[in-house]
Structure formats: C-alpha cells, structure tokens
Amino acid sequence: MKNLILDVDFYDQSEKNLFGKNFPEEFQLFEQNLGQISLSYEEFRTYSQFRHQNAKISCFKSYLDIEQKVNQLAGTLESYLTFDDIDNKLYSKYSDNNEINEVSEQLGVGGILAYLSNIYGLTHADWQKIDITGYKDFDFDSTSINGFSKILVTEAKGTVQTDNSLKGNASQHRTSIKEKKKDDHFKEKYKSVDLLIGGITVADPKNHLKLWLVDPPAFGVSNPNFNRKVQLLKRLIYYSNLINHISSRTYISLSLKNRIEALKAIISIEPLDGLLLINGRGQKLSLSETFVNSHSHIGRSIIGRVTLLSENRAVFMGLEDDYFAKLIEQNFDKVLSMKSVPRSFNTTINCFLPLNKASDKFTSGKYTELGKRIFFLADNVEVVCTSSGFHYGIINSSNVRR
C-alpha cells in the first residue's frame, strides 16, 4: 500500500483559537492529529475525484463509478504533480499550476476528505452522495460523525505555490472561506449543520503536501436520529451500487434496493432495524455455493466481477463475504461500523467472463469454456482493499493462466 504524508496544521493562531471556541469537543481530536499524518495515497487519489459525483450523469452516479475511472479522471492532477513512494510525497512538477483550476480543486477535495476520514474513522461509503425528499441533497462533502450526533460539512480549497511552508496563495482561499459564512444563502443552506471545517491543501515542488485548517463556524444543531438515517442511507446506497455491479439480477441486489426505498420513505428507521433481506419465498438470503461459484472471486471470500477494459486489460471489483452477510442481516449498528484496513496484496483471482465479451488477445486461449462463459485464473494480481471493504485489481494479459 502506498502511503502519503500530509502535513497538517491550523492556518494560524487565530484559527486555532476559533476551533477551540466553536468546536470545543472536537478541538482535542484535531490537536492530536497535527503534523505529518500518514494516509493511503490510493484513497487520497480517489477522494480527489469525488466532485465528479453527479446523479444526472450515469457513469458518475457514485464513488464506485468514479473509482473505475480514477486513472482517467486523475490524469490532469498527475500531469502536474508527482508521487514519490520512497518519501511518501506528492509534490508539484512546477512552482505554479494555479491557472489549471482542475488541479487545485482536486487537491483541495482530496486533502480534506482523506484527512477527515482518517481522524474520524470514516470510509468512502460515508461520503456517498444521496438525496432525501423534503431535504437538501447530502453531497459528497457531508457526513455524520460522533455517533450520529453531528453533521460535518467540508469547505475544500487547493493551490500550488513555490513554498507551501509559507501562506502565499492560501491567504486568498482563507479569505474566501471566511467571507462565505456571511452569505445569507450559505447560512440558510447549512442552518442544521454542526461542524463546518475548511481545509486548504497546498502543493509545492519540494515539501510534503500541506493542509491548513480553517474554521468557518456552523449555525445550527442537527437531529441525531435523522443523522443516523442519513449515514445509513449513504452506506446502503454505496454497497447497493457495488452489489448491482457485481450481480444486478440477484435477490440480494433487488432486495437491498427495495429496502433503501423503504428507508427513504419513513421518518423513523427503527422498525426496519434487524429486518432480514429475504427472497421471493420469504426465506433469508445467503451467499449460496451456487452464488459464489458463478462469480469471480478471491479464495471464495471476496466475491466480485471481472470487467474487460481493453484487449489486454481487465479489472476485478469485489466485496468481502462478511460485508454481504451484514447487509443481509440489516443490523444497522453493524452496517454503520463496517470498516476495513486499507492495504494491498498480491493474489490469484478466479475469473469468469461472458464468452461473447472475451478477448482472444487478453486470454491467449488460456481458459476453460463453460457454456456461455469462460473461466481462467489470474496470478500475481495486485489487489487494493479500501477502507469500505471494496477490493479492486487490474489484471493484465500476462497474469492469465488456464
């Protein structure tokens, strides 16, 4: 797993004092997470593309859609910045890239979301964009923390300059964040938000990535029960998107979608807590031998799907069986506590592809034909496990064997 060092500090003493005054319960947590913080570079990289979440564009509806395209989407960012996995440093190739707005936006979003996820123990699933009728959309920049007692919203800015140990361009972004809180529309939009945390992520050609914390105060107090509902829906929609990708026509995919719609429609979610997902005969769903055997998998414990990307590359995307089990059980506390340690490992993947979508160049005939599908093994594939339990790995034609 590639680690990224993020150097974090309050913007200045006045901002530190404001954090202590406005967020006394959170102040100690932030103080304990200053200085050089080690994060997963892959998670930062994907968080940097979260601004692409857009329900009106089918390929950008969710984090999972974005992660499939992260290499393409992150191309602009990595054209101007370089990651050094020896020093765990993301630095700018040039001293000033600020004419490229996309670079600064990606820096800003990636820095603050990765940092807050790290200190609050959040996963990608917690930042899933959702909408609930009668309320404003809960965008990728909002989440629930502290046992659902608080809603947290971020204000992200990013910039590139010659030396990020100096304030430089960051001072303009700080002014923008501070001025925004005076806007009446802004106050109305976030009237029920408990914490509004501003972050300015700054890159330069020599130092570790810098994150300056700025305090734009929030204006209201949220409802813990509603916060819990929001966070549960964020997670269920995230996993529903993944399971739909893995196996769209199965009972678990359809049943989970129906449960999400039921949760959206009710005020109190407690009557559905622990109500099992069932099949058409009223029986509890399970990961049967048939289900596992009909899907691509790693050691029968990570079940997923292989999708061909080109004539000589494919991607595996999967989820641990324990996550499937907890989603079927619908114990909300367990669903809301699901989390994996980000890591990477090399392994063998048992792969299935539809016969009509198989590429002769990719498999070179190294497969077994099983009706309308082919089966093959992919050896020594680097698989990344994210904090949400989502696994993915790129399979090259050189990995394939019968």
Please provide the count of β strands: 16
Which parts are unreliable, with pLDDT below 50 for 5 consecutive residues or more? 54-61, 134-139
Distance between the termini: 28 Å
Percent range for helical residues? 25-40%
Shape: flat
Biggest sheet record: 8 strands, antiparallel
Question: Over the alpha carbons, how many angstroms does the gyration radius reach?
Answer: 22 Å
Please report which band the strand proportion falls in: under 5%, 5-15%, 15-25%, 25-35%, 35-45% or over 45%.
Answer: 25-35%
Class of secondary structure makeup: alpha+beta
Give the overall pLDDT as a whole number: 83
Number of domains: 2
In DSSP terms, counting alpha (H) and pi (I) runs of 4 or more, how many helices? 15
Describe, in plain words, how this protein is organized in 3D.
With 402 residues, the chain is of the alpha+beta class. The chain contains 15 helices and 16 strands. The protein has helices at 13-22, 24-31, 41-47, 63-68, 70-73, 75-80, 101-120, 170-180, 184-189, 224-246, 251-265, 289-293, 321-329, 332-337, 360-363; strands at residues 3-10, 35-40, 81-84, 89-92, 142-145, 150-160, 195-203, 209-214, 296-298, 302-310, 313-320, 343-354, 368-370, 373-385, 390-396, 400-401. The longest helix is centred in the middle third of the chain and has 23 residues, at 224-246. It is flat. The model is unreliable at 54-61 and 134-139 (pLDDT under 50).
